[in-house]
Amino acid sequence: MSEEKKIKDKVEFDKNLLERIKELAYNLLQEIKSKKSPSLKTPLRNLANVHYDKEKGYFEIGNKIKKRTLTVSTSKTFAQTLRMLSLSKTLIETDDIATKREAYYVSKNWGDARFLEQPESDAIMDDIEAMFLVNREKLGFIPEEKGGDVAGKLIVIDKDPETGKEIKIDCTKMGTGAYSIPSSVEHLQFETKADFVLAIETAGMYQRLVKHAYWKKSNAILISMGGVPTRACRRFIRRLSDEMKLPVYVFTDGDPYGYLNIYRTLKVGSGNAAHINKYFCVPQAKFIGITPQDIIDYKLPTHPLKEVDIKRVKDGLKNDPFVKQHIEWQRALKQLVEMKKRAEQQALAQHGLNFVITNYLPEKLENQKTWLP
Amino acid sequence: MKQGKEIKEGEDKGVGYSDVSNEKNNENKGIAFELAKKQREISIAEFFEKNRHLLGFDNKRKALLTAVKEAVDNSLDACEEARILPEIKVEITELAEERFRIVVEDNGPGIVKEQIPKIFAKLLYGSKFHTLKQSRGQQGIGISAAVLYAQLTTGRPARITSKINEEENAHFYQLHINTQQNKPEVVEEKSISWNKKSGTRIELDIESSYQKGDQSVDEYLKQTAIINPYATIIYINPKSEQQIFSRTINELPKKAEEIKPHPYGVEVGRLMRMLHETEARTLQSFLTTEFSRVGPSTAKEICEKAGLLPQTKPKTITREETERIIKAIKETKIIAPATDCLSPIGAKQLEEGLRKEFTAEFYTSTQRPAAVYRGNPFIIECALAYSSNLPQDQPIILMRFANKVPLLYQKSACAITRTVSAINWKQYGLQQSKNSLPIGPIVLAVHLASVWAPFTSEAKEAIAHYPEIMKEIKLAVQECARELYAYLRKKQRFHEQIKKKGYIEKYIPHISESLKEILNLREDEVPEIKSALEEILEKTRKIEELETPEEFDEEEKIGIRGEVEEEVENIEEK
Prior knowledge:
CATH class of the largest domain in chain B: Alpha Beta
Number of helices of chain A: 13
Helix content of chain B: 40-55%
Strand order of the largest sheet of chain A: 10-7-13-12-14-15
Radius of gyration of chain B: 33 Å
Radius of gyration of chain A: 23 Å
Largest sheet of chain A: 6 strands, mixed
Low-confidence stretches of chain B: 1-21, 548-574
Distance between the termini of chain A: 33 Å
CATH architecture of the largest domain in chain B: 2-Layer Sandwich
Low-confidence stretches of chain A: none
Oligomer: heterodimer
Strand order of the largest sheet of chain B: 5-4-3-6-2-1-7-8
Order of helices and strands of chain A: HEEEEHEHHEEEEEEEHHEHEHEHEHHHEH
Number of domains of chain B: 4
Largest interface: A-B, 31 and 25 residues
Shape of chain A: globular
Number of strands of chain B: 14
Mean pLDDT of chain B: 83
């Protein structure tokens, strides 16, 4: 795609989105003028309204709709949604951006309609996103969260924000530091000869692998997710996977949070972001560890499962469409609950600090049978 | 000298017995002599010294309250008896450290000259003990105990002035109590002029201490004013602050009639005494004349069940036979006693009492029909005030009254406190931890009116836990609580409506403003949108309000659904 075409597309898209916002407002106005209660329709965003199709590989939003009709009790949220929509319109028109936090502060000008806490404004933002089935960056809203850290056999091609001049960032030349994924990754381009991407849950484990230049030995790209991956991190990995044709392996703690929150969100998306999962997930990702079987095979030191862990597993088995589609995951989760134990990535240090590099990862990568889908 | 003589008498007796005794008996006899040296009549003063707490003189602070209370109770009783609207003056002055002068003066009927010394200076003398009728005093011990306390602590005699009609002069007495013989001793007696139609005034100097607060004279008089809204009380405290609790009702409560005891309340000892003292010649006539609610047929039934002839002479009946009569009475159905012996103050009047001492946004009150415990009729009255001026996060203020007297001590031992705490207040919209008073800005007054109020002690501080009484208290309080709940619900709904109206004003401008921004509308198009929005929201507000009552019918709906399900289950079983 040529640069010119891209810019033209963006302008087209923005114009289109602008038109859609205006159309929505216009329809509301017509309803109001004819003395009918206007209503806003949003796709329902939770696990109950997603479908999981193994072929497509991500959570797709269902057709359940939340209809918010203007009444006395909904008038506050209604006013806030329209205020937010108006802010978005201004941002698009002026080609500006606001972080989620900034948007929250803008609301402080809205008198009684202002948000008291940021989660309130985030929820309205998510609603608008879903209303137009676009991601919030398109609406002019960006998160302030960091995308994740990258090191290894990858060159990221970015642009100087001032001059627009191309910049090549070589992720092998970060020393003991890292390349940080920006909050928006659509404009980035890549060059790589790596064999695979390894996404790691904890910063601690990532540090160890970087320190001992594991990426050099294994010819890989290492990405630290730091908990549940952000949208930008998910999109970044997805593009590497799609465009560079790289397999993606995921390495988390051996606990329900690592399985159901971190890995599942990376691979198929979340209920809350169901309207945009299509772009913000990595269906090609595979789980290499730590599996419940690893805890046994590697005789890892463990902690007992907490009450919340067991609840999360039960909830996952019952309600998570992803788990319901994968018998392997059901087995693994049941096994974990029976063991009543969990193990952290760093537990591998029991067998020597570099056991993870010398034994665990090579063995796991070698043996596909020990992975989980 | 007297003691010596007593011991000698003991020796005489001992000698008499020793005639037939051996050595061992002589030893025992020695102990008996020792014991005999200690055995003598206990003087009333000594008894009082050791049992101050029984009469409410446990400590200095309480002594002040008890002394005032006894005098005021007597004054109120006297006024009511004479059908005079009471006007009572109470003045306390500090004479020296821990020494106070109490003056209580009423406009009652006054006391006949001859009776004055006995009433004030003889313990256990009074008109109320032997009658079954509701009054504040019961035993004839209170005021003379106060006089004795004054005498014991300051040595000063009580000063009594009383006048019975306008024509005569007033009588003035200075009285001591002869503590050995429980007899009045007149220190001074004279006829004086007193510028008053009739009335009684008592002046006592006692050792005590004065403090404000929950169990103070101030609180007692305030609560007395609540429960006696037809009385005016003028109070000057030791700090020379005057408080006037004026009457708000100009009508006295119905006069209490005297009644005979009801058979259900009688016990063996009392029945034996009654049988012995009666003038009736037969058991049947004894039963019909000495008891209320017993006619010839009921009397015959009791006799039959006791296995005694109706003609039996009462004086010949044995203890064992008396017990059979008691048993027979319990097995016989006898109608409840008449309630005209009671003088409740009335639900509205009690509410009025609260009204004048507490400014509140909501009042309610109720009176239960008369009920009976152990043959004694009683009535429970209850009033409640909800005031947002009171603290929201504190337990409610519970005022306990028995026969128009406030109960300030022994709160947790009292049947009223126990019953109110046992009610589940959560269902009336109040917070409550288990078995304690609920939390809220509420004053709750509960009054027990009875011919014989069962107290846990002579100090008359707490009502005993009779199940019949507790049941009536519960029903009365719950009735008020339901009214309160209805009020609180209404208030809440009203607030919600106001809030909703506020919503419309608050958020409409944001909706119209946003639409204007997004669609680049002109300023003059905005008012039209605003008014359309207002119209729409007014409409939905009314619909929402109409829908609210349906929430209350939730239970009913479930009920219907439940029935259907049951039917289905039944069919399946068949």
